[in-house]
Amino acid sequence: MREQVPTPAESLKDRARAALGQRNLVLVGLMGVGKSSIGRPVAQQLGIPFVDSDAEIERVSRMTITELFAAYGELEFRALETRVIKRLLQDGPRVVSTGGGAFIDESTRQQVKRGSLSVWLKADLDLLWNRVNRHDERPLLKTENPKQTLENLMNERYPIYQEADLAVLSRDVGKDIMVREVLAAIVEGKTAENKMP
Ligand SMILES: Nc1ncnc2c1ncn2[C@@H]1O[C@H](COP(=O)(O)OP(=O)(O)O)[C@@H](O)[C@H]1O
Ligand SMILES: O=C(O)C1=C[C@@H](OP(=O)(O)O)[C@@H](O)[C@H](O)C1
Ligand SMILES: [Mg+2]
Questions:
Q1: Could you identify the atom of ligand 2 that is nearest to the CA of residue 35?
Q2: For the CA of 54, the nearest atom of ligand 2
Q3: Cα(131) to centroid(ligand 2), Å
Q4: What is the DSSP letter of 26?
Q5: Domain map (residue ranges) of the chain
Q6: How confident is the model over 52-100, as pLDDT tens digits?
Q7: In angstroms, rounded to a whole number, what is the distance separating the alpha carbons of residues 170 and 177?
Q8: Which fold has domain 21-190?
Q9: Distance of alpha carbon 72 from alpha carbon 89, whole angstroms
Q10: Contact 97, 27 (CB under 8 A)
Q11: N or C: which end of the chain has fewer CB within 10 A?
């Protein structure tokens, strides 16, 4: 009988799954970079469950993220986010797409660092702006100059996202290509030196 040679696509996802082991895969990065959209197909490829922390927060609170910010403010939102993410990380392995501020919160970041593989999806300002500009759902960008606010958040947060285990540059290419790049990063274990574009 002929030996079955795996196709390159199969071997990439199989190798990524093996490299992940029992850890969760946690996607971090700024608003609009693609964490929520990429997370589910990455999980499908890996054959493990997917959850988006914002969607879970909305489910348990029965409020939208916008309503939560308006009713309770950012600090309360962060406290809820920390509790929800702590729970989501408990029964891994799964893929968790986080909200952009989650990994910036010290307590959430420490939780992620215990027993998860974190991937920073990063992008330049124009790409992020083009994407978030079309939507009206991000309370932190309801300012006089939202593009400037986004740039300020980049400056504040990029040194912290840098602490993630891996980094993948998000580009305006098909989501399937981004999914492959995340799988490849897991296999290659890209470290701090090659994080910057
Ligand atoms: N690779 C991609 N190419 C083009 N558009 C994308 C890509 N990834 C995400 N998007 C779009 O960008 C917007 C923000 O993506 P989203 O997944 O919500 O980002 P995040 O969860 O990081 O804030 C959405 O409208 C989404 O469809
Ligand atoms: O960057 C942030 O602080 C936030 C990002 C949002 O998630 P996305 O990054 O998925 O847009 C959401 O959690 C909330 O609006 C706050
Ligand atoms: Mg999201």
A1: 10
A2: 13
A3: 13
A4: E
A5: 21-190
A6: 999 999 999 999 999 999 999 999 999 999 999 999 999 889 999 999 9
A7: 10
A8: Rossmann fold (3.40.50)
A9: 25
A10: yes
A11: N
Describe the crossing of helices 65-88 and 53-61 by its angle, rounded to 10 degrees: 110
For 157, the enclosing helix (H) or strand (E) is helix 146-161
Mean pLDDT taken over the chain? 92
Q: Quote the CA–CA distance of 160 and 142 in Å, as a whole number.
A: 23
Nearest Cα residue to 12 out of 175, 168, 183, 169: 183
pLDDT tens, position by position, 101-157: 999 999 999 999 998 999 999 999 999 999 999 877 899 999 999 999 999 999 999
Q: Which long-range contacts (CB under 8 A, 24 or more apart) does 107-112 make?
A: 107/82, 108/78, 108/81, 108/82, 109/160, 109/163, 111/82, 111/85, 111/86, 112/26, 112/28, 112/85
